[in-house]
UniProtKB/TrEMBL annotation:
Keywords: Signal. GO terms for cellular component: endoplasmic reticulum lumen. It comes from Chromulina nebulosa. Gene3D superfamilies: Glutaredoxin. One of its GO terms (molecular function) is protein-disulfide reductase activity. GO terms for biological process: response to endoplasmic reticulum stress. Residues 5-130 form the Thioredoxin domain. Residues 1-19 form the signal peptide. It comes from the Eukaryota. Pfam families: Thioredoxin (PF00085). This is Thioredoxin domain-containing protein.
Amino acid sequence: MIKIIIIFILLINIILLYSLDLEPTTFEEIVLKDDRVWLIEFYSSMCGSCKEFEPIWNKIEISMKSIVTGKINVDTSAGSKLANQLGVFNEGIPNIKLYKNQLVDNAISIMAGEELSAKAIIQSVRRLTTDLTRRDDG
């Protein structure tokens, strides 16, 4: 039953082309076991920098249609616990990580508390995605 719900949520995300608000409890099942590339933003609704970053994130979502995007709210206890496990708080928020069915410690950090433009982040994501594809092809 949970797999049907997960598939339904993923389909809605694809149709709407907006970030999927991920639950930390399903992060491993949805993101780490998926063959697609995921770009995950870790944010806090109380963080000024995160609020300033929101328009940039929206541009990234629109420009990167071949990548599934998701968000983890670190304000919740589960989101905070996951962010802590992933080292997000050591790097700062907002924080973006790129995953492609890899273990958490192999995640590629795109941005961690840095001031970057949407264009710079998109270029980094495209470069890293190309690198991931090359690794998969052997």
